[in-house]
Amino acid sequence: MTPQTAQPNDTDEGGDNAEDRVRIFDTTLRDGEQAPGFSMDRRAKLCMAQALETLGVDILEAGFPQASPDDFAAVEEIARSLRHTTVCALARCQTGDIDTAARALERAHRSRIHLFLSTSPLHREHKLGMSKQQVLDTAVASIQHARKYCADVEFSAEDAMRTEPEFLVEVFSAAIASGATTVNVPDTVGYTTPAEIHELFTYLRQHVRDAHKAVFSSHCHDDLGMAVANSLAAVSGGARQVECTINGIGERAGNAALEEIVMALKVRAPRFGLRTNIDTRKLHPTSRLLSQLTGQAVQRNKAVVGDNAFAHESGIHQHGMLKHRSTYEIMRPEDVGIAETTLVLGKHSGRHALRQRLEALGHKLEDADLDGVFKRFKALADRKREIRDEDLEALALGQDPDATGPWHITQLNTSSHLGGSASATVKLSHEDGREVGEAAIGDGPVDAVLRAIERATGTDMVLTRFQVRAISEGGDAQGHAQLVARHAKRDWHGSSVSTDIIEATAHAALAIVNRIERQGTSRSDASIEECGHGGPLFDLRANGRAQKETTA
Ligand SMILES: CC(=O)SCCNC(=O)CCNC(=O)[C@H](O)C(C)(C)COP(=O)(O)OP(=O)(O)OC[C@H]1O[C@@H](n2cnc3c(N)ncnc32)[C@H](O)[C@@H]1OP(=O)(O)O
Ligand SMILES: CC(C)C(=O)C(=O)O
Ligand SMILES: [Mg+2]
Question: Which segments carry the region annotation Disordered (predicted)?
Fold first, then answer.
């Protein structure tokens, strides 16, 4: 890597070093990837790095090149690929690490070498076996060495929050004098509190020599669940770089979550008076991309990007939301890249939300009718975790949305051969105590399963429509099977969801059988008029009332 002539802290586009801007240093691909369960291959890292650049992070820590040849290659590829974001590589205070980091960054448009060395008494004594003076000398020599390669050098005092503050002043003063352009104050073990870290940043900025020549940075871990609060307190104390990760992934309990810090600064802008370069509308897509690449789901109740972040189930909140969205939401879903707020109908919902959803589905009910539907809706919600639109339609039409039983599948096996027929065996149990097993062959596994179910239950059905679609992404995507079968001159619907599409199909077929049997029309009762919610196809007419399609 050739020495760079750029001035320290010129990472801002257009020389924007304004005091009101917080630089976002993303370490998803380094500290985040260090956590068990989150490792990514090179292709995944590059994909994530490109998304992070689009998101607008200022500095992206791409890895620790000395760690492995693959980490080296990943940093090198990312460095070559990114145009605007500063690509950073981590190195211990060792010449070999620094040389390797510099080589990995050789092709970067903007680069930073990030050095770290423990400063706390605990780490000095038990981990490094170094005196204070040795720590100081090692840090200074390493920074000077890194500066030969790169104008942008960050120095981190590992375990800073458990370090004597006066020693931190000495270390950071020496680091800045040796050419460090960012000094980072990590809470390596997630030990600090907001008041404490605020105090430390204030103190350091007052006492470190030439403090104005470097950007002060925070790097908080979440062991006590305070990483984001501590990062914000550090910012209030003068930090102008925050190190964080998407979804808060990272060592042990994780790092401070990028999306939470950014949205806190944005939503509470009048309080903080600070801005970032992040395009917040990309937060949710970036979070989902990371989930896909690592196979780790985001918890539903995760702030900003979780599935429940803009979902409301309880009636009192839904009523408030329908009147004015600010009653229960402090930010707009579209501002973080989520399409819209959802009012989920469940056991805690009330009439206002029920009416609104039914109207959206084309059912305008009088108050008295609504009361009846509401009562049955609550009874259903007590039994079912999720009430779907189909359930609501059935309720509005006075039908039974509960298609479970009397038949249940207890066993299902299928086998198929390329170019040959398929076979299926099913075992079913009936609520009246019967246990039935049947086998059948068919053109494919779906056909074989349907035939076996028909035989076992004695229900004649002609499959007229069959659709399977993925309702999530990735190798473990859920398949939603939707079937329409002809029986007794009517079309009957059944649907089910499973990660196994044959299983989803079998359950959907059995839902049809159950509906037929619950309506007492099994074995070709041609006089049927009514059916369950999977019954005749519905055509929503202009008056909003559903009519049965004349398919017979
Ligand atoms: C707080 C953090 O997140 S720090 C970053 C943590 N991340 C990682 O450790 C992931 C990548 N790490 C690795 O792949 C390996 O640890 C390697 C390749 C870097 C080093 O492997 P090894 O040489 O086998 O050493 P090992 O990891 O067992 O021990 C760490 C060594 O680094 C030394 N060390 C630790 N931190 C530093 C530092 N900041 N500066 C200089 N030396 C350090 C330790 O004293 C120890 O030295 P020793 O081998 O002379 O006793
Ligand atoms: C390498 C440093 C910054 C680190 O990750 C920590 O101290 O937590
Ligand atoms: Mg860390």
Answer: 524-552
Which residue, judged by its Cα, is nearest atom 32 of ligand 1? 92
CA angle, corner 479, sides to 476 and 482, nearest 5? 175
> Which residue has the least CA distance to atom 14 on ligand 1?
67
CA triplet 86, 88, 89: central angle to 5 degrees?
Answer: 160
Residue matched to tokens 């760079």: 4
Q: How far apart are CA 86 and CA 52, in angstroms?
A: 11
Identify whether the C-beta of residue 497 lies closer than 8 Å to the C-beta of residue 551: no
| Least distant ligand from the CA of 65 | 1
* Closest atom of ligand 2 relative to the 184 alpha carbon: 3
Could you tell me the distance, in angstroms and rounded to a whole number, from the CA of residue 188 to the centre of ligand 2? 6
> 3-state SS of 278-304?
CCHHHHHHHHHHHHHHHCCCCCCCCCC
Pairing of strands 311-312, 342-343: parallel
Tokens matching residue 78: 């990312």
Confirm if 285 and 265 have CB atoms less than 8 A apart.
Answer: no
Q: What is the pLDDT of residue 396?
A: 79
Residue 466, helix vs strand vs coil: strand
Q: What is the pTM of this model?
A: 0.76
Could you tell me the distance, in angstroms and rounded to a whole number, from the CA of residue 91 to the centre of ligand 1? 9
Banded model confidence at residue 267, pLDDT cuts 50, 70, 90:
very high
The domains found in the chain, sorted by start residue, are 22-294 (3.20.20.70), 311-396 (no CATH), 407-538 (3.30.160.270)
Alpha-carbon span 168 to 166, nearest angstrom:
5
pLDDT digits (tens, 9 = 90+) for 215-237: 999 999 999 999 999 999 999 99
DSSP letter (8 states) at residue 455: H
Q: How far is the CA of 80 from the centre of ligand 3 (A)?
A: 25
